[in-house]
Amino acid sequence: MNIILLSRNGARRHNLQLQGWHQWLVVGTGVACLLGVMAFAGFAAGVRYADPALFISTWEDELRNQREGLHSAKDQAQANIDALTIRLADIQARATRLDALGERLVQIAGLDDGEFDFAAAPGLGGPEAEIGIGNAPDLLAQLNSLDAILEERESQLRLLDRLMITRQLQEEVTPEGRPVNQGWLSSSYGQRNDPFTGRRVFHRGVDFAGRPGSDVIAVAGGIVTFAGKRNVFGNLVEIDHGNGYVTRYAHNKSLKVQEGDTVRKGQVIALMGQTGRATGPHVHFEVLEDGRHINPSRFIRASR
Length: 304
Hints:
Layout: E1 2-6, E2 13-17, H1 21-49, H2 52-109, H3 138-173, E3 184-187, E4 190-193, E5 200-203, E6 206-209, E7 215-217, E8 222-230, E9 234-242, E10 245-255, E11 262-263, E12 268-272, E13 282-289, E14 292-294, H4 297-302
Antiparallel strand pairs: 1-2, 3-6, 4-5, 6-13, 7-12, 8-9, 8-11, 9-10, 10-12, 10-13, 13-14
C-alpha cells in the first residue's frame, strides 16, 4: 500500500509505502474513527431532535409506580397498627378484670394484700444488652409490658387458687360449730351428776336438747365410719374427718346417712331423738382427737 503526502502548495511530495501488518493497522484505525464519528453524530441528532414529552412521560410513569407502592406499604402498615391497637385494648381490658378479680379474692380469703398486690406492677429488671436495630415501637413495648403483667397476674391467681382450695379443705374437715341448727346446750363437758343414778361422773361430750325430729348436722366434712345402734348411745353416727379428728352424734331418732357415705359440713345426718340411755330428746355430741376425747366447746366457740 502506497500513501502519497503532498505539501500545502503541492510543490513537494512524499511517498509512504506500507507493507504487511502495517497496512492493516492503518485501515483498522481509519474504520474505527469513522464509526466513532457516525455514533457521535447519531447521539447529537437524537438529543437535538428527540421529543422531551417522551422522557417526561417515562419519568411520570416511574414516579407513579413508586408512589403507588409507597401508598400500598403505608396502608398495610396502618392496618397492622390498627390490629395491634385493637389487640392491645382487649388485653388491657382483660388485665383490668383480672386485677379486680384478684383483689376481690384476696379480700374474701383474708390473705396478705402485700403478698398479693394486684394493683402494683410486677417486679422486672436485670442487665440487658443493647441491640443494633434501635428501639421497638411503642405498641410493641406496651404489648410486651402487658404480657409481663398478665404472666405475673396468672402466677398470682394460680397460687391464690391453691391457697384458697387448701384453706377451704382445711375448714371443711375441721370440726367447728354446733351439731344442731335449733336447740340449746343442756349439759356441758366434764364432771356432772349422772341423770339416772345421781352419782358424780365424767361427761365426755356435750348435750344439745331440742324438739324431737329436728335436724342433727355434721360439724365438718368427712367419711361416715359408723351408722347404727350402739349400746347406751342408741342410734349413733360416727364421722372421721381426717387429721385425727372424729365426731359422734348419739341418741338420734333416725339416721340419714349410712356407713361409708361422704358428708359435707352442715349436712343433715340424723333427726334428734332419745334412743339409748337418754332422759329426753337431745343429741350427745363428742369430739375425739387421735382417739382421745377432748372438749367440744372450743370448736363450738370457734364458730361464733
